[in-house]
Structure formats: structure tokens, C-alpha cells
Amino acid sequence: MTRPADHPAPTLRPLYRAEQVRELDRRTIARGIEGFALMQRAAAAAWQDLRSRWPHARALSVLCGGGNNGGDGHVLAALAAAEGLAVQRVLLKPVEALTGDARRAADMATAAGVSAEPWRADVRLEGDVVVDALLGTGLGGEVRGEAREAIEAVNESGLPVLAIDIPSGLHADTGATLGAAIRATRTVTFIADKLGLYTGAAPAHVGELVFCALGVDAEAEGDLAPAARRLEAGLIAAWLPTRPRDAHKGDHGHALVLGGAPGFGGAALLAAEACARLGAGKVSLATAPEHVTASLVRRPEVMVHGVRGAGDLDALPERADVLVVGPGLGQGSWGQGMLQAALAASRPLVVDADGLNLLASRFRGRQRDDWILTPHPGEAARLLGCSAGEVEADRPGAALALQRRYGGVVVLKGAGTLVAGPAGLAVCPHGNPGMASGGMGDALSGILGALLAQGLELEAAARLGVLVHALAADRAAREGGERGLLAGDLASCARILVNPTVSDGKGEDDAAATR
């Protein structure tokens, strides 16, 4: 079992929904900070970031919408002009039609000598950098008309883009694109960090992300509970402390992987290998008999059992501390029997792949507090009885709905993987496109099984497992590139990550010995 952590767990950055951020804005103004002053702070922060990121830029194209996001753009245009840059200001809404702080900002830019031109389909973007201040976080419906034309023109320009607060067209709560969205090089977001900047389509649109609180302390507002938390690398050292010198394999649990129907042995072996590499004391694999020899050749440390059906399992599930069921399981009679045996055992479960498909089709209505479900969007759709498109349109909502329906902890895989459990929602900001290859989910299920075997509580294991899986993929990509990254590459990288004294470059002498 895991002993108390040597290091306190880091405070995970809170993430909020758009309406919560608007409420924070309203409260800040009510306490005496003028709305226009906040707008000026935001524009100044964005301007300083632009100068730092593109110090040689001599001309900007600033695209302004009709709301306060556009107001930020007007003020930034004035600041840039004051420092001698050539500024092209393109407007979706004429200055005379603007009201409130947005009008004050537009007048400020005009007074600074920045000319304005209306958006037209033939507008040529003249800046070295484009500033996206079109739509902001209030967008709810699909982008249409001139706004869509402007977004598509920016994306086709090939110019670097700084998005103010959020890339226009991206949903601030879900990370879905609403018809069209800016593909930013860099995004500077304000007041409070937004959930929709981290999941779904967001990683392809946000670029480098910078957060500026503008002097607002969101967490001081006790009644505004964060919509999610962002997983941080510091969790690894906090939740996986150095092992004591007298540790032995019995201290670190026994995980059993059930999978590998005839013809699908690789998936289960990937899970078993990841489980062993992440530190489970003992790992067993129950797989179809024809896969036994290959499994032993590949990973002799795993105790491999050839089983023709659930009747061959005997007491194996009860001898394990945690069961991982699903990798290469298949949906035939062999897989159904394995899942039924796993569900009957009084052990924590990790359910993946065809284990999830069988839950959706043949074992409906099951709910447990001691399992981790790890669906990708297609599997999530089958579990919820909807389409994969509906899942992707609101990934946070889908993850929470799955957790309410099935209990335990749900890991909704994909860009910006989400973990939904009793403590709420967490999102992983790590990972890369190289993970879009076969077997990655199998490796994750093995990692989760190993962490549960070592005594981590269910939700902690899910959060930490998702984090380690993504960071291991990032490490592997740095070493060999994203294209061609294989699931089998992750286990050795993950092993380094969960041994901080090794990953910090301190060598193996300080690592705890095991026997």
C-alpha cells in the first residue's frame, strides 16, 4: 500500500465556465474597479505578451468584434500605435454602433491615430501578427456571416495569431468549435482560466496559453466552485513517494489483466506490461491459450495463464487486488465470460475497450463505486445512448453524465482527457497527436491498474494515471518524434516519470530498493 506522501500535493489550477468568469467580472466591478480599467489591464497584458513573443513585429492587424472582447482589441491597437507600430484595425461593427466600454475603447484607438476599416471579404491582412479580438467567451451559437468569413481569412493567411481571452469560435465551456474557430499561435486569457481552453478541439486552436488574473482572485470567491481542476506534474511526487528500503513485492499489490481473446493478444499484453512497469508488485495475465508463448517471450515477468473460458479462471480474480478487463477482450462468448467473471469478483476494476462495449450492449444498468471506466468518445456514446458527435460537442457534460449513470470514476479519453469522479472534474493539459495510434488505451488501463494495486484511492489513481500516461507520451515524442509513436514506447518512459529521483537526473543510487 502507498504510504503517506513525502511532498504535499500541489494546488491544482482551477478552471471555470464562462458564466462564472462573467460573474467574477461583475463582482470585481461592483467592488470599485471600473470595467474600462479592467479592459485596459487586459489589453496591456496582451500587448506586453505580444511584444515578448514577437519582438520584431512592426505591424499588426487587429480584428475587433462588437463586444468587450473587441474593446480589448481597440485598446491594444492604441497601445501598439503609441509605440510606433503600424496598426490595421478591422471592425465587424462600426464604431458609431458600439456602446459602453467597447465604444470608449474604440474612441481611444481613434484618438491614438489608428484608422478603422470595416470587414470585407477582400480585406488584405497587412500585419506581421494578427490579433483576434472578434468574439470572446460569450459565444453560444454557430459562427455565421462576416465573423465566419473573418475567422476563415485569418486561418488561411498563414500569419501568427494572438487570441485575446479565447480563440474566436471556440466554446469557452466545452472546447468545441462552433462552426469555425481561429487557430491561434498564442492565447492570453484573463480573470480566470476557462475549462474550454483545454479539451476537445481546444488544443488545436489555442496554441501557447498564457493566463493573466488581472488582480482578480477567483478562488477567494468561495461560492464559485471551479468547474474543473487542471492536472499538474507535481502530483507524481506527492502521490508516489519513494519506497522504503525494506519494501517487497507483496507491498505493491497484485494486478490481473483479463483480455486477449483469440487473435487479439497484443492489447492485453500491452496493458500487462504497462502495469508491471508502473510498479505493481505482481502482474498476472489471463488470455487465450494461443497467446501464452508470445506473452512469456515478450514479458517473462508477467504470470501468464491460458484460459479457454471463464471456467478456467478458478480463483484467480479473487487472488488479485485489482482487475483490468477489456484490452483485446472481444465481444464474443469468450469476452462476455471474462467480463462476467470480473464483475462477479469483489475487486476494484478498470474497464476498457470491449469491456465498455459489452457494458453498453449486454450488461446495461450496472453501477459501481469501485471501478474506473475509460471510454473514448465512440465508447462513451454507446454507454450514453447518443452519438459520438454529441459527446464531442460537450465533453465535460458527457464525462459528468457517464459518472452519474455508472458511478465510480470515468476517464473520457481524447485531446484534453477528462477525469470525472466524486470530487468533480479534472482535465489533463498534456499529451500529443502521436497518441492517435493503436494500443494507447491499453497502456493507460495497465497504468491505472498498477496505481490501484499500489494502494491509491480510485479517483487519485485515475487522475495520476491519466497524467503519467500523457507525460510519458510527451517524453517519448521528445525523444523520437510524434509520428510513429507506439503504445509500447510509453511503459519505459512512464517508469522514469514515476521514479522522480531518476527523472530528476539524480541517478539510481537514491531509489528505494525492492525485492
UniProtKB/TrEMBL annotation:
Residues 232-501 form the YjeF C-terminal domain. Transmembrane segments: none annotated. Gene3D superfamilies: 3.40.1190.20, YjeF N-terminal domain. The keyword Ion transport does not apply. It catalyses: (6S)-NADHX + ADP = AMP + phosphate + NADH + H(+); (6S)-NADPHX + ADP = AMP + phosphate + NADPH + H(+); (6R)-NADHX = (6S)-NADHX; (6R)-NADPHX = (6S)-NADPHX. Residues 21-222 form the YjeF N-terminal domain. Binds 1 potassium ion per subunit. (6S)-NADPHX binds at residues 68-72, 136-142, 165, 267, 328, 376, 442. It holds the Pfam family Carb_kinase. It comes from the Bacteria. Its cofactor is Mg(2+); K(+). Keywords: ATP-binding, Isomerase, Lyase, Metal-binding, Multifunctional enzyme, NAD, NADP, Nucleotide-binding, Potassium. InterPro entries: CARKD (IPR000631), Nnr (IPR030677), Ribokinase-like (IPR029056), YjeF_N_dom (IPR004443), YjeF_N_dom_sf (IPR036652). AMP binds at residues 413-417, 441. SUPFAM superfamilies: Ribokinase-like, YjeF N-terminal domain-like. Its EC number is 4.2.1.136, 5.1.99.6. K(+) binds at residues 69, 132, 168. Catalyzes the epimerization of the S- and R-forms of NAD(P)HX, a damaged form of NAD(P)H that is a result of enzymatic or heat-dependent hydration. This is a prerequisite for the S-specific NAD(P)H-hydrate dehydratase to allow the repair of both epimers of NAD(P)HX. In the C-terminal section; belongs to the NnrD/CARKD family. In the N-terminal section; belongs to the NnrE/AIBP family. NCBIfam families: yjeF_cterm (TIGR00196), yjeF_nterm (TIGR00197). Homotetramer. This is Bifunctional NAD(P)H-hydrate repair enzyme. It comes from Halomonas saccharevitans. The gene is nnrE.
